[in-house]
Design a protein that fits this description.
The longest helix has 17 residues, at 175-191. Helix 1 (14-27) packs across helix 10 and helix 5 (105-116) packs parallel to helix 7 (136-143). The strands form two sheets. Strands 5-4-6-7 form a four-stranded parallel β-sheet, sandwiched between helices. Strands 2-1-3 form a three-stranded parallel β-sheet, sandwiched between helices. The chain has 237 residues and is α/β, with parallel strands linked by helices. The protein has helices at residues 14-27, 50-54, 62-74, 91-98, 105-116, 129-134, 136-143, 153-167, 175-191, 220-231, and strands at 6-10, 39-43, 79-81, 122-126, 147-149, 196-199, 217-219.
């Protein structure tokens, strides 16, 4: 079977896009350049803020995302991955009109936990307020019998501030300090009963890694990268 071309609809944010591409490269079995997969990337940081759109306080990102998917299709992509969890709120609308299949981070994450961590019944979700209030990631996990705990009040405000700080200029806020704060918030959710932590925003894996906590940390970007490699017809490292 011919290998397929991966299309990355990126820019939301740019560093998460780079992280996904890097994880695709790192997890592809390859001994030389020619063993890697073809990947085309449309990185458009001008896509309107997804959380604001979910709350109907800002412009819809869908037109810009549809234009990006069309560009990926013209460039030869066979399917699309989106390294932005909040953007998945609009996935059904995009999928109806995109003209290319889109791999869902929601599906990939739920399937991974179900297959490889079947004992887990409750996870912590560290995500944008849009993703949490939108409820679609939670609903997908619940379909797999997995309950979700989310940060309370001020802790959720700290998560949002951390996410936007990561998206901001390099050095604007120390990454070590951001990581320590995120770990502390995750620890409080673990003490509330979470058996694992879902990095429910693609900026979170930039400061929270598997092994940082005493419970599994589910890097949604890594899971998406591995699913993309498999969908493209390659095995995994």
């Amino acid at each position: 079977m011919a290998e397929k071309t991966i299309g990355i609809l990126g820019g939301m944010g740019p560093e998460a896009t780079l992280d996904l591409f890097g994880k695709i490269i790192a997890n592809t079995p390859a001994a030389r350049d020619q063993d890697h997969l073809r990947v085309v990337i449309d990185s458009n940081p001008q896509v309107p803020d997804r959380t604001a759109a979910i709350f109907k306080e800002g412009e819809s990102p869908v037109p810009a995302m549809k234009a990006g998917i069309a560009a990926l299709k013209r460039a030869g992509a066979d399917f699309v991955v989106i390294p932005c969890v909040s953007a998945h709120f609009f996935l059904d609308e995009l999928q109806r009109e995109a003209g290319l299949p889109i791999l869902s981070m929601f599906d990939v994450t739920a399937e991974h936990i179900r297959q490889h961590h079947a004992h887990i019944r409750t996870v912590a979700m560290l995500a944008t307020t849009g993703t949490i209030k939108g409820g679609r990631f939670r609903a997908k996990l619940e379909q797999s019998g997995i309950a979700t705990l989310t940060p309370e009040g001020p802790d959720q405000e700290r998560v949002m501030a951390a996410i936007y700080a990561i998206k901001g200029a390099a050095g604007a806020r120390d990454r070590e300090a951001i990581g320590a704060e995120i770990r502390a918030i995750a620890g409080r959710l673990v003490r509330r009963g979470a058996q694992g932590v879902v990095a429910g925003c693609t900026e979170i894996p930039l400061v929270l890694q598997p092994g940082d906590l005493d419970v599994p940390v589910f890097d949604t970007l890594l899971l998406l990268a591995r699913a993309a490699i498999a969908a493209a017809g390659k095995g995994l490292v």
